[in-house]
Amino acid sequence: MRTWEANVRKVTPYTPGEQPNKPKMIKLNTNENPYPPAPGVQAALKEFDADCLRLYPDPAASVLVEALAAYHKVKPEQVFVGVGSDDVLAIAFMTFFNSKKPILFPDISYSFYPVWAEEFQIPYETPALDADFRIRTEDYLRENGGVIFPNPNAPTSLAMPLSEVKKIVRGNPDVVVIVDEAYVDFGADSALELVQQYDNLLIVRTFSKSRSMAGIRIGYAIGSPMLIKYMNDVKYSFNSYTMNQVTLRLGVESIKDDAYFRETVEKIISTREHAKEVLGQMGFSFPDSKSNFLFITHPEYQAKELFEALKKEDIYVRYFSLPKIDNYLRVTIGTEAQMETFYEFLRTYADKER
Ligand SMILES: *Cc1c(COP(=O)(O)O)cnc(C)c1O
């Protein structure tokens, strides 16, 4: 070991899902949206005048902040935008989780949380989900340095009712509670209405899933003006110009077309409900998803083998080699046609296994 290595901040990085790029692949592994962004996004991109790129973007990202504030009926001072919700969450961890007491998040959850905790040297504890993969509210009502959980949770797909979220927020007046609502548009209750009442509650959202824009990198947070101010202070002490001109313009276009947004989300929900029937009939079981993915297991198959077999056919799903969930696959809801190909594969697989 070199001497300087003793002073290196060492972290075990987050492992993102594979991003293969094959012409005919069916990509159901990173919860992207199979439908294109709103037509206005494409139109704005075509009209975009590159001359404006000479100039730095607005560091406050005002056009996007204002569009989001109007959309969610909150004040612009209650909105923070970042480079995907990963950026927003990292800033939130840095800003709010500075207690010596451990922060709390579920043992089975978004696997980036422990990575940020390590990176920012935040102590943490991970209360276990119950046997049905549910978050146990009472586990979050003890002394802690902050709370974060996704609702719906990932990769389990289960949503918590608003009444339970409210119990956690109400029970933690002395710390910041973050609800990561990456998948909330697919049928769960949002805790957004609670931000007016609880100034320590931060809601985090993303354009990556329900808005079909994972490639542009937009995430945002909504909370009290105080929380947002503290996040902005940290952001401006780190990197002021996080949102580029193109992103700001296209983000606003997406927000404008609410009809398209709703239509896309409805299509995915309907495909998901159909997938529950088809997969159920094939003997798979899964929590009752309120997200754009299903977390499936089968009594006769090894998840890892099925994952590999699918991959050979260029059908990508996500497998986590982790305790308690290593016989599950997380399958993103694709188009009806993509899902049909997936079911077809499973029928053939079942015949071979027999
Ligand atoms: C996908 C996801 C994110 C991050 O999404 P971005 O693409 O960075 O906006 C955050 N939290 C959860 C739970 C997710 O599934």
Please sum up the structure shown.
The protein is an alpha/beta fold. It is 36% helix and 12% strand.
* Molecular shape: globular
Q: Figure out the total of helices.
A: 10
Helix content: 25-40%
User: pLDDT under 50 segments (min length 5)?
Assistant: none
Report the end-to-end length measured between terminal Cα atoms: 54 Å
Gyration radius, in Å? 21 Å
Structural class: alpha/beta
* Approximate strand percentage: 5-15%
Number of strands: 12
Mean pLDDT, rounded to whole units? 96
Order of helices and strands: EHHEHEHEEHEEEHHHEHEEEH
Small molecules bound in the structure, each named once: pyridoxal-5'-phosphate
For the report, how would you describe the main beta sheet?
Answer: 7 strands, mixed
Q: Strand arrangement, largest sheet?
A: 2-8-7-6-5-3-4
Keywords:
10 helices; 354 residues; 12 strands; three-stranded antiparallel beta sheet; binds pyridoxal-5'-phosphate; single chain
